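Threonylcarbamoyl-AMP synthase: structure, please.
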Amino acid sequence: MAEILKTEAAMERAVALLEAGEVVAIPTETVYGLAGDATNGEAVARIFEAKGRPRLNPLIAHVSGMVMASGIARLDPLSEKLAQAFWPGPLTLVLPLRQDASIHPLVTAGLDTVAVRMPQGFGSALIARLGRPLAAPSANSSGRITATTAEAVEADLGSRIPLIVDGGPTTVGLESTIVKVEDGKVRLLRPGGVAAEVIEAAAGQTVVRGAGGGERVEAPGMLASHYAPKASVRVGAASVLPGEALLAFGQVRAENADRAVAMLNLSPSGNLREAAANLFSHMQALDRSGAPTIAVESIPATGLGEAINDRLRRAAAPRDQ
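Here you go.
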């Protein structure tokens, strides 16, 4: 089983493991990440093996600052403006990969672009100590519910990795927002911890929705089925069917809510930030109820609600068996 260390005691052990090409689960402000040296092919392969992740799905390269980012990617003026506005923080930029970048091709899934983010807290300090970018997708089995606590990581991946760094529950609770600047326009690839409206205010323009590469996966989190519990998920539920668990939101309940096998409320007051922080932990708890289906009440699609609904739609999508 994985060793679990609090952040204040974990730095030396984490650096040693990463230097040796191992993977380490670390806290970030968004979710827990499964980190490995992004320049080491064996380390990146261990990430895929631990997660059971499709290798066509690219990873985010996490950096400690603009100097490290500029060493692996080319930042146009608008991308640099967004980085200055939101780093460190929950925004990932998809950027042209430098030809001389040391990032291993497994990180980019063979694309000529690389997804880059600067995290807050322990992750940023760890990258600075290592001196190299970290590939760090969410610390959970591929396609399953994202971990927002060290306990959730241990329950899922504890037998497959050597160390979990415990930084307590994550504050944002959703993965980063991913955008790509193309022809001077900001395109949203994945909604996340920074609302699109906030990005629009910083960029001074409307964010374009919709992938520009057809069916091509350009960034993490774009697969149709993702973030899924073992139970099936039914979104926009106006009533609870027999045997279902209920993921509620706000003060108004779905019909027959009192008959739910189990019920948790993302935010009784209807606060979308609170709902985002609770989303994955509440889904995990309802999944443990044994209900075959989790019914989800409607959630507004504004602000962080766009990212919450994105995760719920992918959790409810048909899955490969």
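Notes: The longest strand covers residues 32-37.
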